Amino acid sequence: MPLYRVTLAYDGTDFAGWQLQHPGRGRTVQGVVEEALAQIAAGARVAVLAAGRTDAGVHALGQVASFELPRELPADELQRALNGTLPEDVRVLEAAVAAPGFHPRKDAVSKVYRYELDCGGVQLPQRRCTAAFVPWRLDEGAVREAAALYLGRHDFASLASAGGSAKTTVRTVVRSDVVFSGATLLYETEADGFLRKMVRSMVGGLIAAGRGTARVDGLARALDSRDRRAWPAPAAACGLTLVRVTYPPSPRC
User: Fold this and answer.
1) Residues involved in catalysis
2) Is this model's pTM higher than 0.90 or not?
3) 92 and 198 together in one domain
4) How far is it, in rounded angstroms, from Cα 47 to Cα 37?
5) What is the pLDDT of residues 175-190, one digit of tens each?
Protein backbone atom coordinates (compact mmCIF):
# COMPACT_ATOMS: atom_id res chain seq x y z
CA MET A 1 0.00 0.00 0.00
CA PRO A 2 1.26 3.52 -0.70
CA LEU A 3 2.80 5.36 2.27
CA TYR A 4 2.03 9.05 2.78
CA ARG A 5 3.37 11.77 5.05
CA VAL A 6 1.50 14.91 6.01
CA THR A 7 2.38 18.07 7.90
CA LEU A 8 -0.35 19.06 10.33
CA ALA A 9 -1.24 22.26 12.15
CA TYR A 10 -3.70 22.16 15.02
CA ASP A 11 -5.09 24.14 17.91
CA GLY A 12 -4.64 21.81 20.85
CA THR A 13 -7.08 23.60 23.15
CA ASP A 14 -9.94 21.14 22.82
CA PHE A 15 -7.83 17.99 22.43
CA ALA A 16 -6.71 15.50 25.06
CA GLY A 17 -3.37 15.37 23.25
CA TRP A 18 -2.24 13.62 20.10
CA GLN A 19 -2.49 9.98 21.12
CA LEU A 20 -5.68 7.99 20.66
CA GLN A 21 -7.46 7.38 23.98
CA HIS A 22 -9.92 4.80 25.20
CA PRO A 23 -13.53 5.72 24.31
CA GLY A 24 -14.89 8.45 26.56
CA ARG A 25 -11.47 9.72 27.64
CA GLY A 26 -11.34 12.68 25.36
CA ARG A 27 -11.01 13.86 21.79
CA THR A 28 -7.52 13.46 20.28
CA VAL A 29 -5.74 14.71 17.18
CA GLN A 30 -4.84 11.16 16.13
CA GLY A 31 -8.47 10.19 16.58
CA VAL A 32 -9.91 12.89 14.32
CA VAL A 33 -7.23 12.32 11.66
CA GLU A 34 -7.96 8.59 11.63
CA GLU A 35 -11.70 9.30 11.41
CA ALA A 36 -11.10 11.51 8.38
CA LEU A 37 -8.88 8.89 6.74
CA ALA A 38 -11.49 6.19 7.33
CA GLN A 39 -13.86 8.12 5.08
CA ILE A 40 -11.23 8.07 2.34
CA ALA A 41 -10.52 4.38 2.95
CA ALA A 42 -14.14 3.21 2.64
CA GLY A 43 -14.56 2.86 6.39
CA ALA A 44 -11.39 0.89 7.10
CA ARG A 45 -9.21 2.04 9.97
CA VAL A 46 -6.01 3.79 8.85
CA ALA A 47 -3.39 3.82 11.62
CA VAL A 48 -1.47 7.10 11.88
CA LEU A 49 2.02 7.58 13.33
CA ALA A 50 3.31 10.98 14.47
CA ALA A 51 6.66 12.62 15.07
CA GLY A 52 5.64 13.63 18.60
CA ARG A 53 2.84 12.78 21.00
CA THR A 54 1.86 16.30 22.01
CA ASP A 55 0.07 16.58 25.36
CA ALA A 56 -3.41 17.91 26.06
CA GLY A 57 -3.62 21.60 25.22
CA VAL A 58 -0.38 21.69 23.20
CA HIS A 59 -0.53 23.13 19.68
CA ALA A 60 1.31 22.35 16.45
CA LEU A 61 2.40 24.23 13.36
CA GLY A 62 4.52 21.43 11.93
CA GLN A 63 3.54 18.03 13.28
CA VAL A 64 4.51 15.28 10.83
CA ALA A 65 2.46 12.10 10.52
CA SER A 66 2.47 9.08 8.23
CA PHE A 67 0.01 6.38 7.20
CA GLU A 68 -0.72 3.81 4.52
CA LEU A 69 -3.79 3.97 2.32
CA PRO A 70 -5.41 1.03 0.52
CA ARG A 71 -5.42 3.03 -2.72
CA GLU A 72 -3.14 5.60 -4.28
CA LEU A 73 -4.20 9.24 -4.36
CA PRO A 74 -2.40 12.28 -5.75
CA ALA A 75 -0.95 14.24 -2.81
CA ASP A 76 -2.90 17.41 -3.57
CA GLU A 77 -6.15 15.45 -3.79
CA LEU A 78 -5.40 13.76 -0.46
CA GLN A 79 -4.75 17.14 1.16
CA ARG A 80 -8.03 18.57 -0.15
CA ALA A 81 -10.00 15.50 0.89
CA LEU A 82 -8.64 15.56 4.44
CA ASN A 83 -9.13 19.30 4.90
CA GLY A 84 -12.69 18.90 3.65
CA THR A 85 -13.36 16.30 6.35
CA LEU A 86 -11.24 17.32 9.34
CA PRO A 87 -12.64 19.63 12.03
CA GLU A 88 -11.67 23.30 11.83
CA ASP A 89 -9.00 23.02 14.54
CA VAL A 90 -6.85 20.64 12.44
CA ARG A 91 -5.44 21.32 8.98
CA VAL A 92 -3.14 19.48 6.58
CA LEU A 93 -0.52 21.97 5.40
CA GLU A 94 1.35 19.57 3.12
CA ALA A 95 0.88 16.03 1.83
CA ALA A 96 3.35 13.85 -0.07
CA VAL A 97 4.14 10.26 -0.92
CA ALA A 98 6.77 9.05 1.57
CA ALA A 99 9.76 6.88 0.85
CA PRO A 100 9.30 3.20 1.80
CA GLY A 101 10.00 2.64 5.49
CA PHE A 102 9.64 6.30 6.47
CA HIS A 103 8.87 6.72 10.19
CA PRO A 104 8.00 10.25 11.38
CA ARG A 105 9.47 9.79 14.87
CA LYS A 106 12.41 7.45 14.32
CA ASP A 107 13.67 9.28 11.22
CA ALA A 108 13.50 12.78 12.77
CA VAL A 109 16.85 14.43 13.49
CA SER A 110 15.49 17.39 15.45
CA LYS A 111 12.34 19.10 16.69
CA VAL A 112 11.67 22.75 17.39
CA TYR A 113 9.23 23.91 20.07
CA ARG A 114 8.13 27.46 20.87
CA TYR A 115 6.64 28.68 24.14
CA GLU A 116 4.76 31.95 24.66
CA LEU A 117 4.39 33.37 28.17
CA ASP A 118 2.68 36.64 29.07
CA CYS A 119 4.29 38.10 32.17
CA GLY A 120 2.72 40.53 34.64
CA GLY A 121 -0.22 42.87 34.24
CA VAL A 122 -3.45 41.44 32.85
CA GLN A 123 -3.51 38.90 30.05
CA LEU A 124 -5.76 39.65 27.11
CA PRO A 125 -8.56 37.04 27.03
CA GLN A 126 -7.89 36.42 23.31
CA ARG A 127 -4.48 34.97 24.25
CA ARG A 128 -5.60 32.61 26.98
CA CYS A 129 -5.51 29.52 24.71
CA THR A 130 -2.23 30.23 22.91
CA ALA A 131 -0.05 31.83 25.58
CA ALA A 132 0.47 30.93 29.22
CA PHE A 133 0.40 33.65 31.90
CA VAL A 134 2.22 34.46 35.12
CA PRO A 135 1.39 37.57 37.19
CA TRP A 136 5.05 38.50 37.71
CA ARG A 137 7.62 40.39 35.68
CA LEU A 138 10.65 38.18 35.15
CA ASP A 139 14.30 39.15 35.44
CA GLU A 140 15.51 38.95 31.84
CA GLY A 141 19.16 38.32 32.73
CA ALA A 142 18.31 35.42 35.04
CA VAL A 143 15.99 33.90 32.42
CA ARG A 144 18.72 34.03 29.75
CA GLU A 145 21.27 32.55 32.13
CA ALA A 146 18.90 29.70 32.99
CA ALA A 147 18.17 29.05 29.30
CA ALA A 148 21.90 28.59 28.65
CA LEU A 149 21.93 25.68 31.13
CA TYR A 150 20.02 23.49 28.68
CA LEU A 151 22.46 23.77 25.79
CA GLY A 152 24.51 20.70 24.98
CA ARG A 153 24.14 17.03 25.83
CA HIS A 154 22.62 16.35 29.24
CA ASP A 155 20.66 13.74 31.12
CA PHE A 156 17.29 15.50 31.45
CA ALA A 157 15.72 13.00 33.87
CA SER A 158 14.98 15.85 36.31
CA LEU A 159 12.76 17.49 33.68
CA ALA A 160 10.87 14.38 32.55
CA SER A 161 7.37 13.58 33.79
CA ALA A 162 6.25 10.08 34.62
CA GLY A 163 4.58 8.02 31.93
CA GLY A 164 7.06 8.47 29.11
CA SER A 165 8.32 5.51 27.10
CA ALA A 166 11.79 6.82 26.22
CA LYS A 167 14.64 4.32 26.55
CA THR A 168 17.09 7.05 27.63
CA THR A 169 16.68 10.48 29.21
CA VAL A 170 19.82 11.89 27.53
CA ARG A 171 19.13 14.56 24.92
CA THR A 172 21.19 17.12 22.98
CA VAL A 173 19.81 20.67 22.91
CA VAL A 174 21.26 22.79 20.10
CA ARG A 175 19.15 25.92 20.60
CA SER A 176 17.73 27.53 23.73
CA ASP A 177 16.73 31.05 22.72
CA VAL A 178 14.95 33.69 24.80
CA VAL A 179 13.31 36.80 23.34
CA PHE A 180 11.35 39.35 25.37
CA SER A 181 8.75 41.20 23.31
CA GLY A 182 7.07 43.75 25.55
CA ALA A 183 5.51 41.79 28.40
CA THR A 184 5.77 38.47 26.56
CA LEU A 185 8.55 35.90 26.88
CA LEU A 186 9.14 33.91 23.70
CA TYR A 187 11.22 30.79 24.21
CA GLU A 188 12.33 28.53 21.38
CA THR A 189 14.33 25.36 21.70
CA GLU A 190 15.62 22.70 19.31
CA ALA A 191 16.93 19.26 20.23
CA ASP A 192 17.38 15.78 18.86
CA GLY A 193 14.33 14.81 20.90
CA PHE A 194 12.31 15.80 23.95
CA LEU A 195 11.03 13.82 26.91
CA ARG A 196 7.44 13.95 28.15
CA LYS A 197 6.71 17.52 29.38
CA MET A 198 10.42 18.36 29.03
CA VAL A 199 9.91 21.70 27.26
CA ARG A 200 7.26 22.76 29.76
CA SER A 201 9.70 21.86 32.54
CA MET A 202 12.43 23.88 30.82
CA VAL A 203 10.08 26.87 30.87
CA GLY A 204 9.22 26.13 34.49
CA GLY A 205 12.92 26.52 35.25
CA LEU A 206 13.04 29.83 33.36
CA ILE A 207 10.07 31.13 35.34
CA ALA A 208 11.63 30.10 38.65
CA ALA A 209 14.92 31.81 37.76
CA GLY A 210 13.22 34.94 36.45
CA ARG A 211 10.96 35.22 39.47
CA GLY A 212 13.83 34.62 41.87
CA THR A 213 12.40 31.51 43.53
CA ALA A 214 15.37 29.48 42.25
CA ARG A 215 18.98 30.45 41.65
CA VAL A 216 20.57 29.47 38.37
CA ASP A 217 23.33 27.53 40.16
CA GLY A 218 20.59 25.69 42.06
CA LEU A 219 18.89 24.77 38.80
CA ALA A 220 22.24 23.48 37.51
CA ARG A 221 22.52 21.21 40.53
CA ALA A 222 18.91 20.07 40.12
CA LEU A 223 19.57 19.22 36.47
CA ASP A 224 22.58 17.13 37.45
CA SER A 225 20.65 15.38 40.25
CA ARG A 226 18.38 13.48 37.82
CA ASP A 227 15.62 13.89 40.45
CA ARG A 228 12.27 15.23 39.20
CA ARG A 229 11.39 16.36 42.73
CA ALA A 230 14.27 18.84 42.66
CA TRP A 231 12.97 20.69 39.58
CA PRO A 232 10.27 23.41 39.41
CA ALA A 233 6.80 22.49 38.19
CA PRO A 234 6.15 22.44 34.44
CA ALA A 235 4.62 25.50 32.81
CA ALA A 236 1.06 25.33 31.48
CA ALA A 237 0.41 23.42 28.26
CA CYS A 238 -1.43 26.22 26.43
CA GLY A 239 1.75 28.20 25.65
CA LEU A 240 3.53 25.36 23.85
CA THR A 241 3.64 24.76 20.09
CA LEU A 242 5.49 22.11 18.07
CA VAL A 243 6.90 24.31 15.32
CA ARG A 244 8.94 22.03 13.09
CA VAL A 245 10.33 18.51 12.69
CA THR A 246 13.50 18.14 10.64
CA TYR A 247 14.56 15.07 8.67
CA PRO A 248 17.84 14.20 6.95
CA PRO A 249 18.08 14.94 3.20
CA SER A 250 17.97 11.31 2.23
CA PRO A 251 15.73 8.99 0.19
CA ARG A 252 14.06 7.85 3.45
CA CYS A 253 12.20 11.16 3.55
Assistant:
1) 55
2) yes
3) no
4) 9
5) 999 999 999 999 999 9
